[in-house]
Amino acid sequence: MKAHTAAGRRYTRRFMPTMAAYVVAILFATWAMKTWHPTGALLVALSVLPALPIIGVIAVIGLYLVEETDEYLRTRIVQAMLVGLGFMLAFTSAWGFMEEGGVLPHMPAYFAFILWCFGWGVAQCVQSFRDRRAA
Amino acid sequence: MKNRLKDLRAERGWSQQHLADALEVSRQSVNAIETGRYDPSLPLAFRIADLFGQPIEAIFLNPKETEQ
C-alpha cells in the first residue's frame, strides 16, 4: 500500500515494527519449542506468540481505515479488501472440501490471512493499473 | 458522474495536485472524480462547490440530463 496520505504514512510507520515483531516472535517460538520441548501453559504461550503480531497487523489495518480521511482511497482499499475476502473464502471453501475428500493435504488455518492479503494485493494491482490507464 | 471539474481547474490554471491540496484530498481522488470513476460524497461535493464558488449542480451534471 502506497502512502499518499498522513494516515497512510502512519500505517507504514506502525506496520514495519509490527512485522519485525512477527519475524522475531516466529523465530523465537520455533527455537524455544525445539530447544525446551515445552508443555502446558508454556506450550500454549509459545504457540500463540507468532499470532499476536499478526493480530497487531490486523489492528494496524483497522486503524488505517478509521484514520484515512481521503474517502476515495478508503473506498478503493475497502473494495480491494472485499475482493481479498471473497478470494480467501472461495479458496478455503474449495480447499476444505477437497481436503475432506482426501484430495489435498491439511492447510493450517493461519493461511486464511495470507490468502486474504494475496487477494487484496492482486485487487490493488488491478486498481492501480486501471487508474493509470484512466489518468 | 460527468462533471466540469477538469474545465474549472484548467480555467484557473491549477494542477490536479494544487486542487487536491486545496480540498485536502489525494491527487488520485481528484483524478478519479475528474474522470468520472468516483462520485464524491455530498460533504466533499460541497467543499468542491465552495472552492469554485458555484452550486453543486453547476459542477456535477445531472445524469438524467446528460443521458439525453
SS elements, strand count of chain A: 0
Share of helix among residues of chain A?
over 70%
Kindly provide the radius of gyration of chain B, computed on alpha-carbon positions and rounded to a whole number of angstroms: 11 Å
Q: What order do the helices and strands of chain A follow?
A: HHHHH
**How is the biggest beta sheet of chain A arranged?**
none
Beta-strand proportion of chain A: under 5%
Number of continuous helical runs of chain A: 5
Give the overall average pLDDT of chain B: 93
- What is the chains' assembly state? heterodimer
Proportion of β residues of chain B? under 5%
Task: Point out poorly predicted stretches of chain A.
Answer: none
Helix/strand class of chain B: mainly alpha
What coarse outline of chain A follows from CA principal-axis ratios? flat
How far the N terminus sits from the C terminus of chain A, by CA atoms, comes to 19 Å
Question: What is the radius of gyration of chain A computed over CA atoms, rounded to a whole number of angstroms?
Answer: 18 Å
Number of strands of chain B: 0
Q: What is the string of SSEs of chain B from the N terminus onward?
A: HHHHHH
Number of helices of chain B: 6
Measured as a percent range, the helix fraction of chain B is: 55-70%
Query: CA-to-CA gap between the ends of chain B?
Result: 14 Å
